[in-house]
Amino acid sequence: MAALGPYPADRRVAVAVSGGADSLALALLAAGWGQPRALIVDHRLRPGSGAEAETAAARLAARGIAARVLRLGGLAPGPALPERARRARYAALGAACREAGLAHLLVGHHAGDQAETVLMRKRRGSGARGLAGMGAVSAHHDLCILRPLLGAAPARLRATLRAASLPWAEDPTNTDHHFLRPRLRVELAASDPAPLLAAAADAGGARAAEDAVIATTIAAWAALHPAGFALLPPGPIAPAVLATLIQTVSGTAYPPRADAVAACGAAPRAMTLGGARLLPAGRLGAGWLLVREAAAMAPPVAAARGAVWDGRFALASDSSPPPCSMIGALGSAAAGLRRASPLPAAVLATLPALWHGERLIAVPHLLWPDAAACAGVAFGWQPARPAAAGAFLPPTRGCGTLLHALC
């Protein structure tokens, strides 16, 4: 835990716990470092998982670690189950962190998980950025995820639990060879993962350095607007910068194809790419407007505190939206509000709005219908990949740099 730096006595963090050895060891280590709150996720995919979650909570409580069980619903066996479970897990963890007022979530990914991730991406033909594996620090909307155990072997974590006389549960899916990761685990057990991890560490340092350059370039060269768009000057656009801005504007988790980004950056033109549109800036000035592709926007979601719509806009945790309202795109209703803002129609249509059925209630970015109607509602532009994230994590510094900056 030393990589996270000294911890303020009054600062709290959340720890994602499954009941397995790795996450329980992380919770135990975090208790010797700060004031963790364990969030135990029960995916409810197999008999007995609920009892295992309650047992884990009781074991942690006996060690003075506060714990809460989060029970997921709606998951069923079938295609892409691990990915669906991952999305549901992080959605539940994020909601619980918001409710508890926690901005940092520790997760128990270790050296074995990192080796599996890198091997998986290598076989899928991932580029240099993907081969860096998981980052020690990553930003997800209003939550900072920390992975302090990426350098720890799983055997060491189990030894830590045995030394502390803290038992754990074994998830049978970890040895189910219907899934890719258990198959990779067997393959890695028969070889030395050290070269793979060393290459990932080198690639991670290069990725962090590149992110810092990208963030500095964007800050000096482009203009990001809280309405969720970017203004770019005329001329060619560096592919790495363009890929980052596309992710920021579109809210997507992954960048578009590298060859398409390179072609667009070398000779910018009006086009749609990766869920974003590149258009002439028009009345906003010379250069280019990069805005969300309206046809790719997500459907409406319930207007609950902390809700994230379209991977881009989060409803502020202190907001008080009207009961039964939904967050959705302003869409075609933008045509009637052109006089309310100087923003182009391409931007207006992509703004988040509050709806009650088919009735438009409010558009906070435009203070429509008036300031009073928007007083209890605020949207923050919080894309999955913030354009400036890399600037706060130089490759020669540890997780503590970002942690203390955010604290």
Q: What are the SSEs and their pairings?
A:
Blueprint: E1 12-17, H1 21-31, E2 35-42, H2 49-62, E3 66-71, H3 81-100, E4 104-106, H4 111-123, E5 137-140, E6 143-146, H5 154-163, H6 180-189, H7 194-221, E7 223-225, E8 229-232, H8 239-250, H9 258-266, E9 271-273, E10 276-280, E11 288-292, E12 301-302, E13 308-309, E14 313-315, E15 326-329, H10 345-348, E16 352-356, E17 359-362, H11 371-374, E18 379-381, H12 399-406
Parallel strand pairs: 1-2, 1-4, 2-3, 4-6
Antiparallel strand pairs: 5-6, 7-8, 8-11, 9-10, 10-11, 12-15, 13-14, 14-18, 15-16, 16-17
Helix pairs in contact: 1-5, 4-6, 7-8, 8-9
Condensed summary:
With 407 residues, this protein is α+β, with helices and mostly antiparallel strands. The chain contains twelve helices and 18 strands.
User: Per DSSP, what share of the residues sits in E-state strands of 2 or more residues?
Assistant: 15-25%
Number of helices: 12
pLDDT averaged over residues: 85
> How big is the Rg?
23 Å
Shape, per Cα inertia axes: globular
Strand order of the largest sheet: 3-2-1-4-6-5
Order of helices and strands: EHEHEHEHEEHHHEEHHEEEEEEEHEEHEH
Q: What would you call the structural class?
A: alpha+beta
Low-pLDDT stretches are: 389-407
Distance between the termini: 17 Å
Please give the largest β-sheet.
Answer: 6 strands, mixed
Helix content: 25-40%
Number of beta strands? 18
